[in-house]
Amino acid sequence: MTYPTIEDAIGKTPLVALQRIDAAENARRGNVILGKLEGNNPAGSVKDRPALSMIQRAEERGEIKPGDTLIEATSGNTGIALAMAAAIKGYRMVLIMPEDLSIERAQTMKAFGAELMLTPKSGGMEYARDLAEQMVAQGKGRVLDQFANPDNPRIHYETTGPEIWADTRGRVTHFVSAMGTTGTITGVSRFLKEKNPAVQIVGAQPDEGSRIPGIRKWPEAYMPKIYDASRIDRVVNVSQENAEELCRRLAREEGIFGGISAAGALWVALEVAKTVENATIVFIVCDRGDRYLSTGVFPA
Fold first, then answer.
1. Which residues sit opposite 176 in a β-bridge?
2. How far is the CA of 83 from the CAs of 97, 114, 191, 292, in angstroms?
């Protein structure tokens, strides 16, 4: 008899309806808002999908083999997911991340056996990405490059999008996702638009001056190569204050312990809901709130 492995636990995450936040207004308009609980993945985020996908497909192409060193710049969730995937597959994982990210993320990466290199806060993710490329040029390992690797959006086209379509029985009218590497929104958009070109794809970005873990507004020179603007119907800015407040409300009023980027996507979904009727709006709950406890977003 063959039993499932931890790899088989990735994906097929629940899609759940909000019950209390803006409930009266949504009922009046005939709208339903659904959150896809990606924190239910084994390493705790939507990034479990592309992390394993990028490693598996690189192996299939003969580009890497167990025992090799993998290097990746990360703001957190991809690093955790890659650390898990590297542990499963037998790779040395070196992760480069800005020093101001939450301690829970760093500790989780180390728990999976990854090695961490912290870069100055002032350099942001841009500096971390540059350093990763320098290390590759020096022969210190291989970068999977979540920002340019087509296996990132591809797995969302193959799994996340079909799951949303099936779980809503094709009724989804709007899909809202935080924009970081843009793999999720790009891949899901491709699938949903093939099924129904009328589905609206809406991205969530931080407004000027806001720092929301997992959501980025990239300088043009660092825009992820996997990003395809033609697949996004609209981008809406969200403030750090609104995302953090809704993060607390999501836990207290819905019992959904999600992260700050998930709340940012929900804020955008709620804004969309104010302008439509009889809509089925799906947003991605990217990860779990427990990896943000040290940030102070939740009251002690």
1. 202, 283
2. 13, 6, 28, 18
